[in-house]
Amino acid sequence: MGGVVNRVMTKLEGLKASQPNIEFVYKDMGAKKISEQLDYLGELFLTIGFQGATALAIYPNRSTPINVATVALYNEFGTQNAPARPFMRRTILDNMREIQNECAKNFAKVATLKLSAIDAMNEIGRFVAWKMVDRIEKSPSWAIPNAQSTILDKGHDHPLIGKRTLMKKSITWAVRKGGAFGSIVREGQVS
Q: Per the structure, how many domains does the chain have?
């Protein structure tokens, strides 16, 4: 049972002991379940980005095999030959207020039993993942342009989008119990 409910029950037990002629009845109107969900929320962790099987997908038709997570890493931090185009970090930083509001909205739904803790974290993961996709799609307005050789190879000049949309379709989120590397209790993928 959650901390708040335990404290209330302890107070009632104390009152019962001090007032033996009065009968105290506690009827749980949902406080126990709310407390349990809020406690469980504190055990959950959300990871968003390139993880699992989608991160390991190999870009087709390349002379050297390379997976999606590696391409995302190269884009995020840059390489010797390519500038950084930090779409993941900028998604969080540029949308911090919206993400905080999304968290508050979903946590309030947990506190009123309109969502479970897992469902709330799942909704937040979906929200942030789609913000990341939006950042990728809008990269021509903010990212350093591609080199002419890259434009010729891809057939277009859209940074962060290859010949296919493999990277943005590989963004996933996972609700985990026990930290960033904990067991996955729910996951989703941008589609």
A: 2
81 and 169 share one domain: yes
| 136 close to 161: Cβ distance less than 8 angstroms | yes
Range(s) of the domain holding residue 14: 1-41
145 and 65, same domain (yes or no):
yes
Q: Note whether 35 and 104 are same-domain residues.
A: no
Encode pLDDT of 69-113 as tens digits.
Answer: 999 999 999 999 999 999 999 999 999 999 999 999 999 999 999
**74 and 166 within one domain:** yes
pLDDT tens digit sequence for 134-157:
999 999 999 999 999 888 988 888
pLDDT tens across 1-26, in order? Answer: 456 667 766 776 776 677 777 776 66
Under DSSP, the state recorded for 156 is S
Instruction: Name the 3-class secondary structure at 67.
Output: strand
Instruction: Give the separation between CA 46 and CA 67, rounded to whole angstroms.
Output: 23
Residue 1's Cβ-count burial label (10 Å; 0-12, 13-18, 19+) is middle
Residues 177, 84 share a domain: yes
pTM: 0.83
